From TrEMBL:
Record organism: Pseudomonas gregormendelii
Domain of life: Bacteria
Ranges of residues in domain Aminoglycoside phosphotransferase: 44-237
Stated name of the protein: Aminoglycoside phosphotransferase family protein
Length: 320
C-alpha cells in the first residue's frame, strides 16, 4: 500500500506539506507502538488534529506542538454515559501531543448525516444534546479540569474586540454591521459572569459524535470550556439549521435544536449569550480560514453576515 504521507489528504490541502508529513510519521510510530498500521487505517474528520481509525484503535495527534494532558485528565473524569472511548495511551512526541483510544463501532455522525432520514436526524440532535447534558450535569466535579476560555471563547473582551476588528477589515463590514458586531460581543461579556458556569464540550459538532443507529459517543474534548451553556447551544443550533455551504435550512432536526435551546437558555440573559457565542464562533473560524487561505468559499463570512442581520440569522427563532 502506498505510504499516505506521500499524498495530500483533502483535510491537509492548506497545510505545509513538510509539517503534514512529519505529523503522519509521528502518528505512524504511535500507531505501531499500539499494534496498528497507519497505512491501513482510515483518516477521520477533524481539522485541529489529525485522526486515524482502524486496527482496533484511534490515533489522534496535534498538527502543532500542543500538550493534550489537560484533555486526557478531563476525559478520564467524564461520566461513563458520555460514551467517550477508553484511552489506551497518551503522550507527546517532538512537541506534538497525541492520544490513542479504543476503536468503537460507529460512523462519524457528520459523514452519516446525509444518509439519515429526517426522523433519524431529529433523534440524533436530541441524543447529541443528551450526551452533552451528561457533561453539563457533572460540572461540579469537572470544573477544575477546564479553563474559562479556549476554542472559540476568547479570554477577554479585548481579545474578542481584536478579532472583531480583524473581521471588519477582512470583510469590509458596513458601519451598521460594525456597531452591531461590537454591541453583541460586549453583551456577551457583560452577561457571561451573571449566569451559571457549566463545563461545555466547546465544539458540539456532528463530526465529534459517533452514530450506530443512535448517537453512541461524544468525542474530542480539546476545546472544553467553563462558561454559559449557550456555548454548546449555539453550536447545536448551527449544526442543525445551517448547511455545509452556510445557508439556512428548515428541518425537523433544526426545529428540535431550537426547542432544546429555548428550554435550556438562561431566561434573562440567554438571548445575549447565544447570539454572542455564535458570533465568537464565526470570528474564530474566520481567522482559521483566512490563515489557511481558504477564501474561495467564505462560509464563516456568510454566517457572520447572517448573524449580524436584524433578525439574527439562523438564531432568529431564539432572539424574538
Amino acid at each position: 500500500m502506498k505510504d499516505p504521507s506521500t499524498s495530500i489528504h483533502p483535510l491537509d490541502q492548506d497545510r505545509d506539506p513538510i509539517s503534514t508529513a512529519l505529523v503522519w510519521s509521528l502518528a505512524a510510530k504511535v500507531a505501531a507502538h499500539h499494534g496498528g498500521d497507519l497505512a491501513r487505517m482510515q483518516r477521520a474528520n477533524g481539522y485541529s488534529n489529525a485522526t486515524w481509525v482502524g486496527n482496533g484503535i484511534a490515533v489522534r495527534i496535534a498538527h502543532t506542538p500542543v500538550d493534550m494532558a489537560r484533555e486526557v485528565a478531563l476525559v478520564q473524569a467524564l461520566p461513563r454515559e458520555v460514551g467517550h472511548p477508553e484511552i489506551l495511551g497518551e503522550g507527546t512526541t517532538e512537541g506534538h501531543g497525541w492520544i490513542v483510544s479504543a476503536e468503537i463501532r460507529g460512523q462519524n455522525l457528520q459523514e452519516a448525516w446525509p444518509t439519515l432520514t429526517p426522523a433519524e436526524q431529529e433523534a440524533a440532535v436530541r441524543q447529541l444534546w443528551a450526551r452533552a447534558q451528561i457533561v453539563h450535569d457533572a460540572s461540579t466535579s469537572l470544573r477544575t479540569l477546564v479553563a474559562s476560555h479556549g476554542g472559540f471563547v476568547p479570554a477577554s473582551l479585548e481579545a474578542a474586540t481584536a478579532a472583531a476588528n480583524r473581521a471588519k477589515v477582512k470583510l469590509g463590514l458596513s458601519s451598521a454591521q460594525q456597531s452591531r458586531l461590537h454591541g453583541i460581543i460586549e453583551g456577551y461579556f457583560r452577561a457571561a459572569p451573571l449566569v451559571a458556569q457549566t463545563v461545555n464540550h466547546g465544539d458540539l459538532a456532528l463530526m465529534n459524535a459517533l452514530w450506530d443507529g443512535e448517537v453512541v459517543a461524544l468525542l474530542d474534548f480539546e476545546f472544553a470550556v467553563l462558561g454559559p451553556v449557550e456555548i454548546d447551544l449555539c453550536r447545536l443550533v448551527c449544526e442543525a439549521r445551517v448547511s455545509e455551504e452556510g445557508h439556512r435550512i428548515h428541518s425537523e432536526a433544526g426545529n428540535a435544536a431550537v426547542e432544546i435551546a429555548v428550554r435550556h437558555m438562561d431566561p434573562i440573559h440567554g438571548r445575549a449569550l447565544i447570539h454572542g457565542a455564535a458570533i465568537l464562533d464565526q470570528l474564530r473560524d474566520l481567522d482559521i480560514w483566512t490563515a489557511a487561505g481558504s477564501v474561495e468559499d467564505w462560509r464563516p463570512c456568510r454566517l457572520l453576515a447572517d448573524l449580524l442581520d436584524v433578525d439574527g440569522g439562523y438564531l432568529a427563532p431564539l432572539l424574538r
